[in-house]
Amino acid sequence: MKFTRPLLITKLKATSVHLCLSLAVFVYLVYQIYYNWYPQPYFEVDGGWQGIRLVAAVDLVLGPLITFLIFDLRKSRREILFDLLTIAVIQISALSYGVYATYTQRPVAIVLIDEFVFSAIPEQYGGKLKSLEDLRQYSDEHPPIIFAEMPTTEEGIAEVNRFKLEERVLEHAQLDLYRPKAKLAQALRERQLLFGDRLDYYGERDDYRAWLQQNGKSEDEVLIAPFGGRYGRVWLVFDVAGNYLSYFD
């Protein structure tokens, strides 16, 4: 298609209007993703940034690009309305998929189990989690930070493995293993030597010292735990009572 100057100006105007509307939607979604669905530090290491890129590709690129390609005022009113409807259907469908994928992959719990800290997403609970409010009893954080205690008996371990194989619910998403908040502090204290060794292994001791200096804390005043996100690792920092304070990387 050959673009004459008047046609190009018309297309650019229509695309600009579409882009402004899309930008308003994008800003709202960025707020939801950054502050509600993937609050720091999980935004950077557990999928928030990837979600924003997916939404941006659909909302700020795909929709306006389609408008630029097919919008033409030389068409009849019926054809223009059909084109606008087509654009809306394509963008809304693609955007709905992107938002749904980002929302359903958000961390709803951060779980310390054995020697590891994982994020749990809704689908990992296998339908056993009736409401996210049920997780609030374990922690006031957003998302809640929870200690999951593995059983020590053969029968208990067998039950965990049975649930894992038959129900396809991994250990860190098995609600029966979740323990009260007081247990989190105890579990963190028991693992400080191990986590300290891991801090040295990763060569991140200086980062820890820098955080302590910046926040006026000593090692005796805090507890740390490495969080392995889907796209990176950070260190979560707690006070001695198990209350989450901050993070460093």
Please give a structural write-up:
The protein folds into two domains: 5-104, no CATH class; 109-248, no CATH class. The chain has helices at residues 5-37, 42-45, 48-70, 77-104, 154-166, 181-190, 192-201, 205-215, and strands spanning 109-113, 116-120, 145-148, 178-179, 222-228, 233-239, 244-248. The strands form two sheets. It has a four-stranded mixed sheet with strand order 2-1-3-4. The chain has 249 residues and is an alpha+beta fold. The N and C termini lie far apart (51 Å). The protein is built from eight helices and seven strands, in the order H-H-H-H-E-E-E-H-E-H-H-H-E-E-E.
Q: In short, what is this structure?
A:
Helices cover 53% and strands 14% of the residues. It has helices spanning 5-37, 42-45, 48-70, 77-104, 154-166, 181-190, 192-201, 205-215, and strands spanning 109-113, 116-120, 145-148, 178-179, 222-228, 233-239, 244-248. The radius of gyration is 24 Å and the shape is elongated.
Core attributes:
three-stranded antiparallel beta sheet, 249 residues, 7 strands, 2 domains, 8 helices, alpha+beta
Low-confidence stretches: none
Based on DSSP secondary structure assignment, what is the total number of beta strands? Answer: 7
Q: What's the helix count?
A: 8
C-alpha Rg, in Å?
A: 24 Å
Assembly category: single chain
Main beta sheet: strand number and arrangement? Answer: 4 strands, mixed
As a percent range, the share of strand residues is: 5-15%
Mean pLDDT: 92
Structural class: alpha+beta
Strand order of the largest sheet: 2-1-3-4
The first-to-last residue Cα distance is: 51 Å
The amount of helix comes to 40-55%
What is the H/E order? HHHHEEEHEHHHEEE
Please indicate the count of domains: 2
Shape: elongated
